[in-house]
Amino acid sequence: MYGRERDYVTLKIFARGHGETCKNEFRTYEVLRKANPSHPGYHYVRTALDTFPIERPGGEHQCLVQEPMWDSWKDLLRRNPSGRFSDVLLKGGLQHLFRALDYLHTQCKLVHTDIKADNILHAIADPEILTSFVDGEMEAPSPRKVINGDPVYMSRRFGLPKEWGRIILSDFWCVVDGDVKRNHNAQPDVYRSPEVMLQAP
């Protein structure tokens, strides 16, 4: 439980040695949360509910608390035998994505630089998804193995929702300040424009 209105949260625990990356990402989440919550695109970017450190022998781990999400666009394509989106899903999803980018660019003055299918998530509109997930784990726990004394669990997939949630732009660790001129490579190679890859003037 996390607060009164949320039954479930996700917890991302960062590996030690990523302190500076964590600080930058956490600062970004603070900007995303505060810039302008009344903007129409605010509800299409993933924000942080909380951040905190965990003390462990050998150093601390930074932790990020967020609302749980359903599959990414990449996962959704893998689930679909045709490997394609329907027109309705794609058009609606792109509208949400453009609103998220408008919020990011105009209100937060940030540039994502790493937009790809696995960073575009679906919000959970059907609470039964989470209930079924938890019930399934309680009835038949995921297989696990122990590596160096630590248990590692196999991931369990969510079921299909009865309705699609809104599109959420996520994963802001590569974000840069939009007010600063830059010339470094951004985006995965598969999405990078030819003129950038060829360093054409």
Order of helices and strands: EHEEEHHEEHEEEEH
Helical percentage: 25-40%
Report the top-level CATH class of the domain at 10-126 and 161-180.
Answer: Mainly Alpha
Overall outline: globular
Mean pLDDT: 87
How do the strands line up in the largest sheet?
Answer: 1-3-2
CATH superfamily of the domain at 10-126 and 161-180: Transferase(Phosphotransferase) domain 1
Measured by DSSP, the beta-strand proportion falls in 15-25%
Structural class assignment: alpha+beta
Put simply, the count of helices is 5
Stated plainly, the CATH topology of the domain at 10-126 and 161-180 is called: Transferase(Phosphotransferase), domain 1
Distance between the termini: 54 Å
Q: Architecture of the domain at 10-126 and 161-180, CATH level 2?
A: Orthogonal Bundle
Could you describe the largest sheet, including whether it forms a barrel?
3 strands, antiparallel
Unreliable runs: none
Write down how many β-strands occur, each being a DSSP E stretch of 2 or more residues. Answer: 10
Catalytic activity: L-seryl-[protein] + ATP = O-phospho-L-seryl-[protein] + ADP + H(+); L-threonyl-[protein] + ATP = O-phospho-L-threonyl-[protein] + ADP + H(+)
Protein name: non-specific serine/threonine protein kinase
Organism: Chaetomium globosum (strain ATCC 6205 / CBS 148.51 / DSM 1962 / NBRC 6347 / NRRL 1970)
Domain Protein kinase: 1-201
